């Protein structure tokens, strides 16, 4: 079968999972001794993904099962100005070798001064305000094997120095050790029509993944406005996927990581039940520049009929000036997002988010439903439903048109 030919030539871009697990467990045991005793928390999770339709490629599975473990260790010294955080992550997937992986999400030391802050180590940093896409969020690499929503991130080694002033907070970032994007493997679902040959990844920088990137951000609250201005210079996190062939002459995609300069603005206005949101970027690559933005609102109807339930209505418009190119890392050139958020505000923290993104040009539609509810004192049930509807052949998501699925996860927190 084609999948066997591919798997013989393309090795998963994954570190040795066994040695990684041993290293993480060893560090956890070291941290647990009384010398630097702190607080442990985290969760175990069991996940099932059920795909409604047969796959495009042979060898892929109609359902999958996986286990995840994410402990968290936190220690704060008595003075309050020093703290340490460690969050490893492990997943075992029954079918997809690339999805069986580990990562250090957070491992850093924090020092707080009167008007400054210093953080050294691996961290996750989030920028952005919109719901449907996060254009300005560029510090961390996407852990795409975890979830196609691009919200799961790999830990990024960095040094961050922040100045806290009355006129806002200024953040300086030095980013060391570039992280390549993870992709589903040959047997995994939610992958591109042809395998991703990450072993042949191409970098524009001669330093490849050893290049030091940098970023600068100013954030402040001015009355009802929350504003952020940022600039990033370095290797772009979203690779171009360039078609090529493997040693057998079979088609593959090779990730190309370009050097970019990106300047961005995120803005949120809070007024009563209204949240007005904007994310905008301008990015330069090899002397060529493009722009993109997402703008919209969320309005919340609070305490409907004294039930305690809040219902929010969301709408956003997405624009990207790049041409509709299958190999460009975006699918949202001219799209509308409509959604609703329901918070039941009950003891079980029940909530629901549902929305659709519709391409105004070809009608391609992406449906997303997310719901969660706690039960007992330590358990949480999460449900996700994602569907690709009326996907046009020219759309970036056309390769996922048969990957409609439901995801169920039960987590136990400790």
How does this model look, in words?
Mean pLDDT is 90; it is low at 1-18. Helices cover 6% and strands 51% of the residues. The protein has two helices and 21 strands. It is globular and about 60 Å long. It has an 18-stranded antiparallel beta barrel. The protein has a three-stranded mixed β-sheet with strand order 8-12-11, with no helix packed on it. The protein has 414 residues and is mainly beta.
- Rounded to the nearest angstrom, the distance between the terminal CA atoms is 44 Å
Let me know the average pLDDT. Answer: 90
Biggest sheet details: 18 strands, antiparallel, barrel
User: What fraction of the residues are assigned to beta strands by DSSP?
Assistant: over 45%
Residue stretches low in confidence (pLDDT < 50, at least 5 long) are 1-18
Using the CA coordinates, give the radius of gyration: 22 Å
Order of helices and strands: HHEEEEEEEEEEEEEEEEEEEEE
Backbone shape: globular
Helical region count?
Answer: 2
Q: How many E strands?
A: 21
User: What level of helicity do the residues show?
Assistant: under 10%
What would you call the structural class? mainly beta
Q: What is the topology?
A:
Elements: H1 2-9, H2 17-31, E1 39-51, E2 63-76, E3 82-93, E4 101-112, E5 116-123, E6 156-165, E7 168-175, E8 202-203, E9 213-222, E10 225-235, E11 240-245, E12 251-257, E13 259-271, E14 274-285, E15 288-301, E16 310-320, E17 334-343, E18 351-359, E19 365-375, E20 379-389, E21 405-413
